[in-house]
Design brief:
Layout lengths: L1 H24 L3 E4 L5 E5 L2 E5 L21 E3 L5 H4 L11 H10 L2 E3 L2 H9 L19 E4 L2 E7 L10 E6 L5 E4 L9 H7 L2 E7 L8 H11 L3 E5 L12 H10 L4 E2 L7 E3 L2
Parallel strand pairs: 3-4, 4-5, 9-10, 10-11, 11-12
Antiparallel strand pairs: 1-2, 1-13, 2-3, 6-7, 7-8, 8-9
Helix pairs in contact: 5-6, 6-7
Length: 268
């Protein structure tokens, strides 16, 4: 009997070790491409957010270099998020469309923006729900990746601006706030989907500034935060230093991670 108990005890420990190894293999790698463009990778799956590539002065990659993407999440349809190239009437979302076509990625966007992408030449099979997109609401599972579309206080030429909470099978919740001002419902979303890593705009002028972004951390309570949407235009904050200083002083329990374009962060 003792041998029997000992055997199953050893098996339980072995399974726990296997589980921990599997989790370690499926941690999340977050790569910044400047402004609000990010690549998230975990467990062999790749999610791109707001891929402004070609005319992004900070982006270290070219569209032709992007050969893998399962999902492309668009927060809104401004040129520096969908990747407009040249004339906005002919080059709208050129980066998003090119990446989706060459990788087979599914684009997630609000209904009205999804329709505009259709009109701009993106096939319906490359858009969530056969071209309909979706709207702000509950979680949806897309090929094993959980995606929650959240509000964002901003403008958009089509539909409304949004943010996203993304969860891979073996990761915590990653919140990309999109372009947004601070708003009270951040606290509610953090309660519903406890945030592990928050990607927050800090540039001011069109989004939260360093002071407001720091205040939002009190509501979001993430373990880690990565600042974004700065350093690309003269009217935005040039650096993240002010945000880093304020966050370290006001919410020292939150780890601040500053990524230069091309740098990545491994969550484990």
């Amino acid at each position: 009997m003792k041998r029997f108990v000992s055997f199953f005890g050893m098996m339980a420990v072995f399974m726990m070790l296997l589980s921990s190894v599997a989790y370690a293999q499926d941690d999340v790698t977050i790569t910044s491409w400047g402004q609000s463009a990010f690549k998230l990778e975990s467990g062999g799956k790749t999610v791109l957010i707001d891929p402004w590539i070609t005319e992004n002065p900070l982006c270290p990659v070219e569209v032709k270099d992007i050969t893998k993407a399962d999902l492309i999440l668009l927060t809104h349809d401004h040129f520096d998020h969908v990747g407009t190239v040249g004339d906005p009437t002919t080059g709208h979302a050129a980066d998003t469309i090119a990446i989706a076509k060459q990788t087979g990625a599914i684009v997630v966007a609000v209904y009205d923006t999804a329709f505009r992408l259709l009109m701009d030449g993106l096939p319906p099979e490359n858009i969530l729900n056969g071209g309909f997109g979706r709207l702000i609401g509950g979680a949806i599972d897309i090929n094993g990746i959980s995606v929650v579309m959240t509000p964002a206080v901003h403008s958009s030429d089509s539909g409304v601006a949004a943010g996203y909470i993304v969860k891979f099978p073996a990761s915590g919740n990653i919140y990309h706030a999109g372009d947004t001002a601070i708003f009270g419902d951040m606290k509610l979303y953090a309660k519903l989907y406890p945030i592990d890593i928050a990607l927050l705009p800090i540039g001011g002028s069109f989004t939260m500034d360093a002071y407001q972004a720091t205040e939002s951390l009190k509501m979001l309570k993430p373990a880690k935060v990565i600042p974004m949407h700065y350093g690309t235009f003269p009217m935005l904050a040039s650096y993240a230093d002010e945000f880093v200083g304020l966050a370290n002083m006001v919410v020292p329990e939150v780890e601040v991670i500053v990524l230069a374009p091309g740098e990545n962060y491994h969550s484990n």
